[in-house]
Amino acid sequence: MNVNIETSWYNQLKGEFNEPYFTKLTDFVRSEYTSFTCYPKGSKIFSAFDYCTFDDLKVVIIGQDPYHGPGQANGLCFSVNEGVPNPPSLVNIFKEIESDLDIPFPTNGNLERWAQQGVLLLNATLTVRAHQAGSHQKQGWEKFTDAVIKSISDHKENVVFLLWGGYAKKKGAKIDLSKHTVLTSGHPSPLSANRGFWFGNKHFSKVNEYLQNNNKIPIEW
């Protein structure tokens, strides 16, 4: 795996790339991509960082795994490539935006447009084997993305973290709440949303209110 990551992120994370765990992770990912179909495409593994530089970062959304179906994953959590049907969680995200901000349902589920405005769409695990959810967990990605979150917490101010569901809440446990704000709710998956833990959280309007109160440009969701 070639660590071809955007420069501002490289400067923040370069110590991680020399750690033994990252060498093992690199070997694992290379082996998996050689032997099996894996997602996202190799060139897209670090897309979350490429589209949202460290300097421009304003909001962090934490996911778990990339989508593991053909053509879905593009390196941004919850996002899919244009032309791919929106997965159920993304449909519920768009429904909440529509309800919260009265914004029409978007024409596609590619969230690059969010990332380019300063939203880091970070999966805890950045790769997955086709049709096998969780297949690349516990190989080192989680340690790397923990380092990403810590770097943001330590070196940025007034970032909004959106933690949806129990996994994301645990992932964000060490965020410095004296410098940042954290919004939590249930996961947008149908199982959680249909039990009343997602709809009505108004996270998207709350994010923009916080950004405006801190003299930052709000996100066009």
Write out key terms for the chains shown:
two-stranded antiparallel ribbon; 9 helices; globular
Could you explain how this protein is built, in words?
The structure is a single chain. By secondary structure, the chain is an alpha/beta fold. Helices cover 39% and strands 11% of the residues. It is built from 9 helices and 6 strands. It has a 4-stranded parallel beta sheet. A two-stranded antiparallel ribbon has the order 1-4. Helix 7 links the parallel strand 5 (160-164) and strand 6. The relative contact order is 0.16. The model has no long low-confidence stretch (mean pLDDT 96).
**General form:** globular
N→C terminal distance: 33 Å
Average pLDDT value? 96
Roughly how many Å is the radius of gyration? Answer: 17 Å
Which structural class do you get from the secondary structure elements? alpha/beta
Question: How many strand units?
Answer: 6
DSSP helical segment count? 9
SS strand fraction = 5-15%
Q: State the low-pLDDT regions, or none.
A: none
Order of helices and strands: HHEHEHHEEHEHEHH
Helix content: 25-40%
Biggest β-sheet: strands ordered side by side in the sheet: 3-2-5-6
Describe the sheet with the most strands.
4 strands, parallel
Topology:
Blueprint: H1 7-17, H2 20-35, E1 38-39, H3 47-51, E2 59-63, H4 88-101, H5 112-115, E3 119-123, E4 128-129, H6 141-155, E5 160-164, H7 166-171, E6 181-185, H8 190-193, H9 203-213
Parallel strand pairs: 2-3, 2-5, 5-6
Antiparallel strand pairs: 1-4
